[in-house]
Design brief:
Layout (H helix, E strand, L loop, with lengths): L1 E5 L7 E4 L1 E2 L6 E11 L1 H7 L9 E2 L4 E8 L11 E4 L22 H4 L3 E4 L5 E3 L10 E5 L3 E4 L5 H7 L2 H12 L7 E5 L3 H13 L3 E5 L3 H9 L4 E3 L5 H8 L5 E6 L4 H9 L1 E9 L13 H6 L3 E4 L7 H13 L9 E5 L4 H10 L4 E5 L3
Parallel strand pairs: 12-13, 12-15, 13-14, 15-16, 16-17, 18-19
Antiparallel strand pairs: 1-2, 1-5, 3-8, 4-6, 4-10, 4-19, 6-7, 7-11, 8-9
Helix pairs in contact: 4-5
This protein binds zinc ion (2 copies).
One zinc ion binds next to loops.
Length: 360
């Protein structure tokens, strides 16, 4: 079978024939139907997220169960499944406190060898998943079985970007009806934040992105205003909110200057939510005097504070009822051997989401 392997910083992914490692009793083999191309994959390729090569890329996938180990209870043969970015072991300190997005099984999970390469080396898989393959072997803890007729390409997006964005609005920030919201960065995750805020009933949603096409698309996903950051975005957001700033400002890019902007456009008593993944060594200088005197909150949001077993079916219900639009988020479909084209599209900022599809 084929896999897309990270072989070194600033090198294109190697699409090669590999042999899957024999699955264990707690493992599941999934025929991957579709896999979204997420910015974190690009961050591995360009060194922003430091991981040692070789590694199977891809962490946003959906497909159908082809084989289950003898100890597997969560999924059955033939089930449609979505891969969860973080596993849910169900029994660690965090899982039993309703914080499955912080499951302690995650780090060990990412080190398990998953494929043999032709040069004799072996490779683990990104986030313990590695969805840029024909057939993925992973732990049952990383899979959420779902009952739906939605296409795999939409289910795949739930595995990372949609859950990260919609979850940031609904779970982390708890956006309320009538709230004012600003979203800096309107790619896949930013678009999902906008939709989450709309679903929560936000009255004003300001989309901020330098790419005109993304601002235009954001209005279609529920933004009420679009702002070009070429002119001071903090002042523009304040002008739209009676000079106060918004209840919730989301930074979805992972850049320190934009995080500062997000704080600057958050109202007194409001909340700044940091969603974008920055460089691993990024730091933020926060003037604490105005933070305290204005009673502001700064929150990190990992994986939309999502409880995958609860939230994936919830998001599917929102899609099926027409309130969450993932169909319009898929900008292009490509076969696995054109993965590099998807990264190129991402570098130029043209797509909301590219999907590697088994049928394209
Ligand atoms: Zn991702
Ligand atoms: Zn756990």
């Amino acid at each position: 079978m084929r896999a897309a392997i990270f072989v070194g910083q600033d090198q294109p992914p190697s699409i090669e024939d590999v042999i899957a490692v024999e699955p264990g009793p707690g493992d599941v083999v999934v025929r991957v139907g579709a896999s979204g191309v997420c910015h974190s994959d690009l961050s591995v390729l360009n060194g922003t997220l430091p991981v040692p090569p070789p590694m199977v890329l891809g962490h946003e996938g959906a497909g159908t169960v082809e084989w289950v180990g003898s100890e597997v209870t969560r999924v059955r043969l033939g089930d449609r499944v979505i891969a969860s970015l973080t596993p849910v072991c169900g029994s660690c300190w965090h899982c039993i406190r309703g914080e499955t997005h912080l499951c302690e099984a995650g780090s060990a999970f990412g080190r398990v060898t998953r494929v043999h390469r032709h040069d004799g080396s072996t490779a683990p898989a990104l986030s313990g998943l590695g969805t840029f393959v024909d057939v993925m072997t992973t732990s049952e803890f990383a899979l959420v079985p779902v009952r739906t007729d939605l296409p795999d390409e939409q289910l795949a997006l739930i595995g990372c970007g949609v859950t990260t964005g919609v979850g940031a609005a609904l779970n982390t920030a708890k956006v309320f009806p009538g709230a004012t919201v600003a979203v800096i960065g309107c790619g896949g995750v930013g678009t999902a934040v906008i939709q989450g805020a709309r679903i929560a009933g936000a009255a004003r949603i300001v989309a901020i992105d330098p790419v005109a096409a993304k601002r235009e698309a954001a209005l279609g996903f529920g933004a009420t205003d679009a702002v070009d950051p070429a002119d001071d975005p903090v002042e523009q957001v304040k002008a739209l909110t009676d000079g106060r700033g918004v209840d919730f400002a989301f930074e979805v890019v992972g850049a320190e200057t934009l995080m500062q902007q997000a704080m600057g456009m958050t109202r007194r008593g409001g909340t700044t939510v940091l969603v974008g993944v920055p460089r691993f060594d990024a730091a933020l200088a926060v003037p604490v005097f105005p933070l305290i005197l204005a009673d502001r909150t700064i929150k990190g949001s990992y994986y939309g504070s999502a409880q995958a077993l609860r939230d994936f079916p919830r998001f599917i219900a929102l899609i099926e009822s027409g309130r969450l639009d993932l169909g319009s988020m898929v900008s292009q479909r490509l076969p696995l051997d054109r993965l590099e084209d998807a990264f190129e599209t991402m570098r130029t900022g043209d797509a909301i989401r590219s999907v590697i599809s088994a049928t394209s």
